[in-house]
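Researcher: Please translate sequence to structure tokens.
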Amino acid sequence: MSEYPTFHYGKSRFDQSTFFGRFRHFLDVIDPSTLFVTEKRLQECVELLDHFKQGTLPPGVTDAQLWQAQKIKQAIIHPDTGEKILMPFRMSGFIPFGTPVVVGLLLPNQTLGSTIFWQWLNQSHNACVNYCNRNASKPAPMSKFVQGYLGAVTSAVSIAVGLNVLIQKTSHFSPTTRLLVKRFIPFPAVASANVCNVVLMRHSELSEGISVLDNNGNVVGTSKVAARHALLETALTRVVLPIPILVLPPMIMAVLEKLPLLQRQRRLVLPIHTLVCLAAFGLALPLAISLFPQMSQINVNLLEPEIAMATDCKLVTYNKGL
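Model: Translation complete:
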């Protein structure tokens, strides 16, 4: 496959049927360079894509230029509302704006107040990213967003504070072991809160179902079974995502902090910690969201009988979401 294949509007230039293809696609999606695109450049990209759709492309425009224009437009403008997404809540801004929060979550010797603050800030950032990148093709009440947000914050804070209190009361751990264990507390708190957020914000899909499409992209029905699969895949992604981010840095820092350099220069600990978190975040995000295709397929025989009767296809497609 060439680096820039023939341009297809709204499609990815990478093969989405393979993990590596999805990984490369999402590296494009989270590319932070799109945060620095000027308003003039954005308008040029939008106009170029409009010319393509209307069949009025100027001579000399290459596929590479069209793919780049689409990448910029998709990174900045919401596909349903047509409005610009605020910079901190774009997928391309998730890592640069989320890394300081991850560093805060993993700071050693946290007080009760700092634990609550960083868990609240993390879930607030996640909720805003989820809301700004939501499927807005159908109107959804703000109450659903608020419910998911409150549920995520409550579960994250409760688990983090509860585990902190439990470790403080445990007499079997030495001070060094207790400090090391406390560094891993953010993971179960964040992972459970992420799942809670997904379930609460998308629970209506379980009762109403989601659309399933045939090979031609036509809707053949609404399936609650497909909704369960979509929710499970998304929840698993949200559990996998914080593993490298919240588990690897404590392990790496526990080794690095024993080095003579960091023993002598303690002021270097925070900058190095930040770089380790940034590297882990940059690896974890595309890996996690590449686990499952956004447009997943399921055997018709596993779905409701009325859907099996409505199509001759053996497999149908549904949008898992991010």
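Researcher: Any highlights?
Model: The mean pLDDT is 85.
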